[in-house]
Protein backbone atom coordinates (compact mmCIF):
# COMPACT_ATOMS: atom_id res chain seq x y z
CA UNK A 1 0.00 0.00 0.00
CA UNK A 2 3.05 2.21 -0.02
CA UNK A 3 2.75 2.83 3.70
CA UNK A 4 5.79 2.64 5.91
CA UNK A 5 5.50 -0.30 8.27
CA UNK A 6 4.97 1.55 11.45
CA UNK A 7 2.22 3.04 13.57
CA UNK A 8 1.70 6.74 13.26
CA UNK A 9 0.11 9.28 15.52
CA UNK A 10 -0.39 13.03 15.26
CA UNK A 11 -1.86 15.37 17.82
CA UNK A 12 -2.52 18.99 17.08
CA UNK A 13 -4.06 21.84 19.02
CA UNK A 14 -6.88 23.31 16.97
CA UNK A 15 -9.18 26.03 18.34
CA UNK A 16 -8.41 25.04 21.94
CA UNK A 17 -9.12 21.34 21.48
CA UNK A 18 -6.67 18.61 20.70
CA UNK A 19 -7.22 16.63 17.54
CA UNK A 20 -5.62 13.20 17.58
CA UNK A 21 -5.17 11.15 14.45
CA UNK A 22 -3.84 7.62 14.54
CA UNK A 23 -2.90 5.21 11.81
CA UNK A 24 -1.87 1.77 12.97
CA UNK A 25 -0.03 -0.73 10.85
CA UNK A 26 -1.89 -3.99 11.10
CA UNK A 27 -3.21 -6.53 8.55
CA UNK A 28 -6.54 -7.01 10.43
CA UNK A 29 -7.20 -10.50 9.06
CA UNK A 30 -10.78 -11.51 9.73
CA UNK A 31 -10.13 -15.25 9.65
CA UNK A 32 -12.38 -15.60 6.58
CA UNK A 33 -10.12 -14.61 3.70
CA UNK A 34 -8.08 -17.09 1.72
CA UNK A 35 -4.52 -16.55 0.62
CA UNK A 36 -3.47 -16.94 -3.04
CA UNK A 37 -2.94 -20.67 -2.41
CA UNK A 38 -6.49 -21.07 -1.17
CA UNK A 39 -5.48 -21.51 2.44
CA UNK A 40 -7.56 -19.74 5.06
CA UNK A 41 -5.66 -16.91 6.71
CA UNK A 42 -6.14 -17.16 10.49
CA UNK A 43 -7.76 -14.26 12.28
CA UNK A 44 -5.40 -11.54 13.40
CA UNK A 45 -6.96 -8.25 14.39
CA UNK A 46 -6.57 -5.52 16.95
CA UNK A 47 -9.03 -5.94 19.78
CA UNK A 48 -8.24 -3.30 22.28
CA UNK A 49 -6.86 0.21 21.93
CA UNK A 50 -6.32 2.53 24.85
CA UNK A 51 -5.34 6.14 24.76
CA UNK A 52 -3.82 8.29 27.47
CA UNK A 53 -3.31 12.03 27.73
CA UNK A 54 -0.40 12.56 30.10
CA UNK A 55 -1.37 10.08 32.82
CA UNK A 56 -5.14 10.03 32.32
CA UNK A 57 -6.80 7.32 30.32
CA UNK A 58 -9.13 9.12 27.95
CA UNK A 59 -10.42 6.61 25.45
CA UNK A 60 -10.85 2.88 24.98
CA UNK A 61 -11.67 1.47 21.58
CA UNK A 62 -12.70 -2.16 21.20
CA UNK A 63 -12.43 -3.42 17.67
CA UNK A 64 -14.02 -6.36 15.96
CA UNK A 65 -12.93 -7.93 12.70
CA UNK A 66 -14.87 -5.32 10.76
CA UNK A 67 -12.34 -2.60 11.44
CA UNK A 68 -10.49 -1.87 8.23
CA UNK A 69 -6.93 -2.93 7.49
CA UNK A 70 -4.39 -0.45 8.81
CA UNK A 71 -6.94 1.04 11.20
CA UNK A 72 -7.37 4.78 11.20
CA UNK A 73 -8.95 6.74 14.03
CA UNK A 74 -9.48 10.38 14.59
CA UNK A 75 -11.01 12.03 17.63
CA UNK A 76 -10.79 15.19 19.68
CA UNK A 77 -9.87 15.81 23.28
CA UNK A 78 -11.37 18.73 25.15
CA UNK A 79 -8.81 21.37 26.00
CA UNK A 80 -5.18 20.41 26.25
CA UNK A 81 -2.06 22.37 25.60
CA UNK A 82 1.06 22.13 23.59
CA UNK A 83 3.47 19.61 25.02
CA UNK A 84 0.82 17.21 26.35
CA UNK A 85 1.88 13.64 25.86
CA UNK A 86 -0.57 11.40 24.00
CA UNK A 87 0.09 7.68 24.34
CA UNK A 88 -1.77 4.92 22.58
CA UNK A 89 -1.43 1.20 23.11
CA UNK A 90 -2.98 -1.64 21.18
CA UNK A 91 -3.27 -5.38 21.67
CA UNK A 92 -4.44 -7.86 19.06
CA UNK A 93 -6.16 -11.22 19.43
CA UNK A 94 -2.96 -13.22 19.36
CA UNK A 95 -1.28 -11.07 21.96
CA UNK A 96 0.89 -8.77 19.84
CA UNK A 97 1.22 -5.29 21.28
CA UNK A 98 2.23 -1.87 20.19
CA UNK A 99 2.72 1.56 21.68
CA UNK A 100 2.81 4.91 19.94
CA UNK A 101 3.20 8.26 21.54
CA UNK A 102 3.45 11.83 20.50
CA UNK A 103 3.49 15.34 21.87
CA UNK A 104 0.71 17.80 21.13
CA UNK A 105 1.79 20.48 18.67
CA UNK B 1 7.13 -37.08 66.04
CA UNK B 2 10.18 -34.86 66.10
CA UNK B 3 10.15 -31.22 65.13
CA UNK B 4 12.31 -32.00 62.15
CA UNK B 5 9.87 -34.36 60.45
CA UNK B 6 6.99 -31.94 61.06
CA UNK B 7 8.98 -29.23 59.32
CA UNK B 8 9.66 -31.53 56.41
CA UNK B 9 6.05 -32.51 56.11
CA UNK B 10 5.03 -28.86 56.08
CA UNK B 11 7.48 -28.10 53.31
CA UNK B 12 6.21 -30.98 51.22
CA UNK B 13 2.58 -30.01 51.74
CA UNK B 14 3.32 -26.41 50.81
CA UNK B 15 5.08 -27.52 47.67
CA UNK B 16 2.16 -29.71 46.69
CA UNK B 17 -0.34 -26.91 47.20
CA UNK B 18 1.54 -24.39 45.09
CA UNK B 19 2.20 -26.98 42.37
CA UNK B 20 -1.49 -27.87 42.14
CA UNK B 21 -2.53 -24.21 42.04
CA UNK B 22 -0.08 -23.59 39.23
CA UNK B 23 -1.42 -26.60 37.34
CA UNK B 24 -4.96 -25.34 37.82
CA UNK B 25 -4.05 -21.92 36.52
CA UNK B 26 -2.30 -23.42 33.51
CA UNK B 27 -5.15 -25.75 32.58
CA UNK B 28 -7.82 -23.13 33.09
CA UNK B 29 -6.20 -21.22 30.25
CA UNK B 30 -5.47 -18.11 32.26
CA UNK B 31 -2.05 -17.95 30.71
CA UNK B 32 -3.38 -17.78 27.15
CA UNK B 33 -3.30 -14.36 25.56
CA UNK B 34 -7.00 -14.53 24.60
CA UNK B 35 -7.88 -14.92 28.23
CA UNK B 36 -5.69 -12.01 29.20
CA UNK B 37 -8.09 -9.96 27.14
CA UNK B 38 -11.05 -11.01 29.20
CA UNK B 39 -12.31 -7.43 29.13
CA UNK B 40 -12.86 -7.73 25.37
CA UNK B 41 -16.63 -8.24 25.09
CA UNK B 42 -16.50 -11.49 23.14
CA UNK B 43 -20.24 -12.17 23.30
CA UNK B 44 -20.98 -8.85 21.66
CA UNK B 45 -18.35 -9.16 18.94
CA UNK B 46 -19.24 -12.76 18.12
CA UNK B 47 -22.98 -12.14 18.00
CA UNK B 48 -24.41 -12.76 14.56
CA UNK B 49 -27.35 -10.40 14.63
CA UNK B 50 -27.55 -6.72 15.44
CA UNK B 51 -30.02 -7.34 18.27
CA UNK B 52 -27.81 -9.92 19.98
CA UNK B 53 -24.75 -7.72 19.68
CA UNK B 54 -26.54 -4.74 21.17
CA UNK B 55 -27.99 -6.75 23.99
CA UNK B 56 -24.60 -8.20 24.87
CA UNK B 57 -22.83 -4.86 24.61
CA UNK B 58 -25.27 -2.35 26.01
CA UNK B 59 -27.94 -4.34 27.78
CA UNK B 60 -31.58 -3.38 27.72
CA UNK B 61 -32.29 0.30 27.47
CA UNK B 62 -34.78 2.62 25.97
CA UNK B 63 -33.94 3.44 22.39
CA UNK B 64 -34.48 7.02 21.42
CA UNK B 65 -34.23 7.52 17.69
CA UNK B 66 -32.72 10.89 17.91
CA UNK B 67 -31.44 13.58 15.65
CA UNK B 68 -28.78 14.42 18.25
CA UNK B 69 -26.62 11.99 16.35
CA UNK B 70 -24.94 12.93 13.12
CA UNK B 71 -23.56 9.91 11.34
CA UNK B 72 -21.85 9.75 7.98
CA UNK B 73 -20.77 6.66 6.11
CA UNK B 74 -18.85 6.41 2.86
CA UNK B 75 -17.48 9.06 0.65
CA UNK B 76 -19.45 10.29 -1.19
CA UNK B 77 -22.09 9.64 1.47
CA UNK B 78 -23.97 6.34 1.38
CA UNK B 79 -21.71 4.91 -1.28
CA UNK B 80 -18.46 2.99 -1.10
CA UNK B 81 -16.39 1.70 -3.99
CA UNK B 82 -14.31 -0.57 -1.81
CA UNK B 83 -16.03 -2.22 1.12
CA UNK B 84 -12.68 -3.04 2.72
CA UNK B 85 -12.28 0.51 3.96
CA UNK B 86 -15.32 2.68 4.27
CA UNK B 87 -14.88 5.93 6.14
CA UNK B 88 -17.31 6.67 8.95
CA UNK B 89 -17.83 9.75 11.03
CA UNK B 90 -19.91 10.10 14.17
CA UNK B 91 -20.78 13.45 15.61
CA UNK B 92 -23.16 14.34 18.37
CA UNK B 93 -24.11 17.16 20.66
CA UNK B 94 -24.87 14.73 23.49
CA UNK B 95 -23.12 15.06 26.82
CA UNK B 96 -21.89 12.31 29.14
CA UNK B 97 -21.44 9.75 26.42
CA UNK B 98 -20.71 6.36 27.94
CA UNK B 99 -20.36 4.32 24.82
CA UNK B 100 -20.41 4.57 21.07
CA UNK B 101 -20.91 1.52 18.87
CA UNK B 102 -20.85 0.99 15.13
CA UNK B 103 -22.62 -1.99 13.59
CA UNK B 104 -22.98 -3.26 10.05
CA UNK B 105 -26.19 -5.21 9.66
CA UNK B 106 -25.13 -7.63 6.90
CA UNK B 107 -21.62 -8.39 8.15
CA UNK B 108 -20.98 -11.91 9.50
CA UNK B 109 -20.40 -10.31 12.88
CA UNK B 110 -22.26 -6.99 12.92
CA UNK B 111 -20.40 -5.19 15.69
CA UNK B 112 -17.50 -3.33 14.10
CA UNK B 113 -16.21 -1.25 16.97
CA UNK B 114 -17.14 0.01 20.35
CA UNK B 115 -15.77 3.11 22.05
CA UNK B 116 -15.68 4.01 25.69
CA UNK B 117 -14.89 7.69 25.81
CA UNK B 118 -14.09 9.56 28.99
CA UNK B 119 -15.54 13.06 29.45
CA UNK B 120 -12.32 14.42 27.95
CA UNK B 121 -13.16 13.02 24.55
CA UNK B 122 -15.05 15.12 22.07
CA UNK B 123 -16.68 13.89 18.91
CA UNK B 124 -16.47 13.77 15.89
CA UNK B 125 -14.90 10.36 15.81
CA UNK B 126 -13.67 9.13 12.46
CA UNK B 127 -12.51 5.72 11.41
CA UNK B 128 -12.65 3.13 8.64
CA UNK B 129 -14.66 -0.08 8.64
CA UNK B 130 -15.23 -3.10 6.44
CA UNK B 131 -18.64 -3.71 4.88
CA UNK B 132 -19.41 -7.00 3.16
CA UNK B 133 -22.35 -5.97 0.97
CA UNK B 134 -25.02 -3.30 0.62
CA UNK B 135 -26.20 -2.87 4.16
CA UNK B 136 -27.55 -0.67 6.87
CA UNK B 137 -24.80 0.77 9.01
CA UNK B 138 -25.91 1.65 12.50
CA UNK B 139 -24.39 4.03 14.99
CA UNK B 140 -25.49 3.92 18.59
CA UNK B 141 -24.58 6.19 21.45
CA UNK B 142 -25.36 5.40 25.03
CA UNK B 143 -25.62 8.50 27.15
CA UNK B 144 -27.29 8.95 30.52
CA UNK B 145 -28.97 5.55 30.37
CA UNK B 146 -30.54 6.09 26.98
CA UNK B 147 -29.60 4.74 23.59
CA UNK B 148 -29.51 7.03 20.62
CA UNK B 149 -29.59 5.13 17.37
CA UNK B 150 -29.30 6.16 13.78
CA UNK B 151 -28.60 4.22 10.62
CA UNK B 152 -27.54 4.81 7.04
CA UNK B 153 -27.89 2.55 4.05
CA UNK B 154 -24.62 2.07 2.21
CA UNK B 155 -24.08 0.67 -1.26
CA UNK B 156 -20.85 -1.25 -1.66
CA UNK B 157 -19.28 -2.04 -5.03
CA UNK B 158 -16.65 -4.53 -3.88
CA UNK B 159 -17.41 -6.41 -0.70
CA UNK B 160 -14.77 -6.05 1.95
CA UNK B 161 -15.10 -8.84 4.43
CA UNK B 162 -13.13 -11.47 2.53
Task: Give structural notes.
The complex is a heterodimer of chains A (105) and B (162). With 105 residues, chain A is mainly β. Chain A has strands at 8-14, 17-23, 46-53, 56-63, 72-77, 85-92, 97-103. A 4-stranded antiparallel beta sheet of chain A has the order 4-3-6-7, with no helix packed on it. In chain A, strand 6 (85-92) and strand 7 (97-103) form a beta hairpin. The two termini of chain A are 28 Å apart. With 162 residues, chain B is an alpha+beta fold. Chain B has 4 helices and 9 strands, in the order ααααβββββββββ. Chain B has helices at residues 3-27, 33-36, 42-46, 50-58, and strands at residues 63-64, 69-73, 79-82, 86-92, 97-104, 111-117, 121-129, 135-143, 146-158. In chain B, strands 1, 3, 5, 6, 8 and 9 form a 6-stranded mixed beta sheet that branches. A 3-stranded antiparallel beta sheet of chain B has the order 2-4-7, with no helix packed on it. In chain B, a hairpin with a 6-residue loop joins strand 5 (97-104) and strand 6 (111-117). Residues 29-37 of chain B have low confidence and may be disordered. Classes of the chains: A mainly beta (105), B alpha+beta (162). Strand 4 (56-63) of chain A pairs antiparallel with strand 6 (111-117) of chain B.
Kindly summarize this structure in a few lines.
Chain A is mainly beta and 105 residues long.
Largest sheet of chain A: 4 strands, antiparallel
Share in β-strands of chain B:
35-45%
From the spread of the alpha carbons, the general shape of chain A counts as: elongated
Percent range of helical residues of chain B: 25-40%
**Average pLDDT over all residues of chain B:** 75
Give the percentage of residues in beta strands of chain A. over 45%
Assembly annotation: heterodimer
> What percent of the residues of chain A sit in helical stretches (DSSP H or I)?
under 10%
Number of strands of chain A: 7
Give the beta-strand count of chain B.
Answer: 9
